[in-house]
Amino acid sequence: MEHIRTTKVEQVKLLDRFSSSNKALTGTLYLTATHLLFIDFHQKETWILHHHIASVEKLALTTSGCPLVIQCKNFRTVHFIVPRERDCHDIYNSLLQLSKQAKYEDLYAFSYNPKQNDSERLRGWQLIDLAEEYQRMGVPNSNWQLSDANRDYKICETYPKELYVPRIASKPIIVGSSKFRSKGRFPVLSYYHQSKEAAICRCSQPLSGFSARCLEDEHLLQAISKANPANHYMYVVDTRPRLNAMANRAAGKGYENEDNYSNIRFQFVGIENIHVMRSSLQRLLEVSGSRGLSVGDLYSGLQSSGWLRHVQAVLGAAVVLAKAVTTESASVLVHCSDGWDRTSQVCSLGSLLLDPYYRTVRGFMVLIEKDWISFGHKFSERCGHLDGDPKEVSPVFTQFLECVWHLTEQFPQAFEFNEAFLLQIHEHIHSCQFGNFIGNCQKEREELKLKEKTYSLWPFLLEDRVKYLNPLYQPQAQEFAVLEPNTVSFNFKFWRNMYHQFDRTLHPRQSVFNIIANMNEQNKQLENDIKDLESQIKQCKNKQADGVLTKELLNSVRPESPTLKTSLCFKEQTLLPGNDALRTIDSSNPADNRYSEYAEEFSKPDPAVVSLEYGVARMTC
Amino acid sequence: MEFSELIRTGQAQAELLRGPEAPPLRGTLCVTGHHLLLSPGPQATPDLWLLLLRSVDSIEKRVAGDCGTITLRCKDLRVLQLDIEGVEATLNIARSIEGLRLGDAWHFHPPERYYKRVARETNAWRLSEANEDFSLCPSYPRAVIVPRAVNDDALALTARFRQGGRFPVLSYHHAPSRTVLLRSSQPLIGPQKRRCAEDEALLRAVLAGSRPGARGFIVDTRSAQTAKQARMTGGGTEAKAAYPGWKRLHRPLERGRPLQESFVHLVEACGDLEQSMDHWLSRLAGCRWLAHVKEALSTACLAAQGMEREGACILVHGAEGTDSTLVVTSLAQLILDPSSRTMAGFQELVEREWIQAGHPFQLRCAHSAFSHARPKHEAPTFLLFLDCVWQLGRQFPLSLEFGEGMLLALFDHAYASPFGTFLCNSEQERCLCEVRTRTHSLWSGLNQLKEQRKLRNPLYVPNPLALWPSVEPQSLRLWQGLFLRWTRPPEPSEAAWEKVWQIVTDQEKTEGSQPTVSASELQL
């Protein structure tokens, strides 16, 4: 609060990001404790959460005022022009303060109150239960067991308490292995494939240097391969490029020497590190956000940013995993350097390919809880929740979501959820509105008492489940049991709906998804109506057989038929608002689309024609 | 109503006998484009009796006294008898059914019908038969539509002033703004800066016939530089002083060999499955195909915007006026005109703006992207148009009645086809080759019922508004369904499409089940 000097500025202009003619909306800017709010003269509200602000920039003063450019972590970019410089300066300073918090306790989640009582809050947190998830996978079983070695986070601070390891791996072996692994992150189970009896395990890099060995670590790997009765060979996948891994050897880290471990096949899959990913996305956004972009610029920018190449590499690694499990029934151990970025990406995507459960709304939440939250992906550092080291920020999770999106594009019927679900999750990893993504590991989260002080995101997403459903989902289809995506280059596209999600003029004007989802709903409703009516008819027939039926009864059936009529009307009524909403964007304003500076050319010879600014509302019918 | 010409009598009073068991139905008999309807009077059941004309296998008529009988034998082995009041009515209905049943598709989309309608609606335009023997312009059809104020002699002079005789003709009349879209070829200004009074008068008449005070824009699909250079070879572009009220805009669109090369490079890139991401992206950027799509779409949007928003008349031409010009005029119509987005309307548009308008399909589509022969006249202009339509369909997925399948079919048939529709380079050639009598029309093939699921967009909802697409590069996509048709597994997306169809037909079914429920109620 003490950071806010000005709470309201009038006559602020919001510029269209891509317009060449500096088209602008005028309105009032409000600054609250949690949000920046802009209300334009159509009374349309634009809310920007302070936590979403990635950068604020004050540009040089112009004749119309002081420009303020705000870049958000959800890829919204707004360009305000504040008439008075002092106001602009105040807002700028306030936003700088408000967007970077020093303490976890100042994050939105700790003050956010959705009007739930404590038991509801607790139930929300218990919605996703990982013990239940491991049971669903089929562990513990004769080969795998729950280990209590990390009960007090003694062995590894960044791992969860409950870890599943091979039954034959004793505690000393685990402890020994953990000492030989970066940050103590020893090999543990991530996903167990019940029918193949193969496991996907994860860890961090070994501290092998040029020649160091660790017998316990070698034993633990052997135990993992022995826990798979179907195939004693096991893959060890190092997700880093070979060169990076070799460089790590000089620092006393490195990768497994195939000679020291029996029955392993070692391979690199070459995913770049967080710093490369950060600058790659930055470059991509610079290109796609530039004005007057030509087609050639976009594609050469896509190429030079390397972003799609990185996405391809991540997905490619997941395919390697899935193939090893399905075709060879082999277990796989995945690691990178610390085992919380690339490893999380590859393990979770691999599981997603193998197990249809993770492609459901609930299953996807479980997957994120398991491979990302509990295994210590450093959400707070990677998303820059607090004012910290900018070098720790990286779009690793965004990249994971993009891989999932590419899978949904390739397999439109294999996922229960739709793109909106992915976008919503992305929104909330940065929003700090819920406790799930706050902190860097489970230990830290317990210390913050997040379950008592904040709310879980998942129940809120489940409440809105209908919005996130994919109407084309085919849950039982056999061909989607294991996904085998084609990672050939032309299957990768720029994810416009993510990186331009707030630039509405770039989007299709009509949504197939909404229409189909509506139809699906209607169909279900109508089918129910038919069933009802048929059962009523049957009842009547039975009564007729009893000889009771008279004209009156028949009439008593008749009045029922209006239920169908009304439900039809009702359907129409419920549908119409939706249609209206669609209508408003059915067609858009040519001025929005910037076919070029033609508008001016048109109006040049005839000064009588001044305005080309037609409101979209006027075009709706 | 593409069949309306075949319907001689729309209605008659009739009695229908459906066999010895079913009771006869009395009511008004109607013939529509696809169906035979019998609507009973208000007193009887509200049910409408319907018969698909295509299911009629044979038809037999008898006349006795002042009433007649038509016997219909159907493909599903039903025999129906219609007793109709009035001899004339009987004969007419029989003939209508006969004609519609066979579906003489060569009469599906004659452009004259559209022209006649425009002439009727505006009173400023007339249908001219000056080109009856193709002497004015060999690449125009026999009937063209020109301003009423311009007589045929003036037309002949104008034709001499335009390359290939392609004088300005109406392409589309935008009724809400009372403006028109015209197309032509370049004027033959030449190095001596020739002028042609009749040509100038024609364009003046266009403005005069539009709404009062209307201005005009000439969209030249070449750069100002190229247009100027064309003077050296006898061509050129309209001089400002000679055409008061008209303003010239240059929107260079790629054509000819560079366009063909762009196509060849794109197809090459799409055939390489092993290439790295960097290589793929650089080839995609390098072939410039999507840049051409963007240019074509935005020029069409410009033309459409000029008509709808500025109330201006638009004349589009490049050099010959048979390539880029047609891309622009046909896309502008699709943007503005809801009726051209229907199945029939789109076919009519292709027929009128491409086939009849003299796009030289034979030359342009002689070779596709794999030919090693040096391209001479080949250019994927029509494909560029189809790609733009596809982009439009992606951005407005509910507003086109036809789906991707239709565009793919048109592409396939333009390059190789068992039908005669895309044969030859102009109407004149088609007449000489007797295409109409010796081949079948593609439209009859496409309008068969079994093709519909492939060609139609199940989600179509008529949209009365103009479609303004986004032409930002982020909004344009590679048309994978065409360029990667044979290189990527189509199953998942096809299955998804099948599911969409299923949901839509389910909806129709569940909504349609209301009568069956009420029918069983009645049986009680």
UniProtKB/TrEMBL annotation, chain A:
One of its GO terms (cellular component) is cytoplasm. The keyword Kinase does not apply. InterPro entries: MTMR6_PH-GRAM (IPR035998), Myotubularin (IPR030564), Myotubularin-like_Pase_dom (IPR010569), PH-GRAM_MTMR6-9 (IPR048994), PH-like_dom_sf (IPR011993), Prot-tyrosine_phosphatase-like (IPR029021), Tyr_Pase_AS (IPR016130), Tyr_Pase_cat (IPR003595). The keyword Coiled coil applies. One of its GO terms (molecular function) is phosphatidylinositol-3,5-bisphosphate phosphatase activity. It comes from the Eukaryota. Pfam families: Myotub-related (PF06602), PH-GRAM_MTMR6-like (PF21098). Residues 124-499 form the Myotubularin phosphatase domain. Keywords: Coiled coil, Hydrolase, Lipid metabolism. SUPFAM superfamilies: (Phosphotyrosine protein) phosphatases II, PH domain-like. Gene3D superfamilies: Pleckstrin-homology domain (PH domain)/Phosphotyrosine-binding domain (PTB). Residues 509-543 form a coiled coil. One of its GO terms (biological process) is phosphatidylinositol dephosphorylation. The active site is at C336 (phosphocysteine intermediate). PROSITE patterns: PPASE_MYOTUBULARIN (PS51339), TYR_PHOSPHATASE_1 (PS00383). Substrate binds at N273, I274, C336, S337, D338, G339, W340, D341, R342. Belongs to the protein-tyrosine phosphatase family. Non-receptor class myotubularin subfamily. This is Myotubularin-related protein 6 isoform X1. It comes from Camelus ferus (Wild bactrian camel).
From TrEMBL, chain B:
Gene3D superfamilies: Pleckstrin-homology domain (PH domain)/Phosphotyrosine-binding domain (PTB) (2.30.29.30). It comes from the Eukaryota. Residues 105-483 form the Myotubularin phosphatase domain. GO terms for cellular component: cytoplasm. Pfam families: Myotub-related. One of its GO terms (biological process) is negative regulation of autophagy. GO terms for molecular function: protein phosphatase binding. Belongs to the protein-tyrosine phosphatase family. Non-receptor class myotubularin subfamily. This is Myotubularin-related protein 9-like isoform X2. It comes from Camelus ferus (Wild bactrian camel). The gene is LOC102507214.
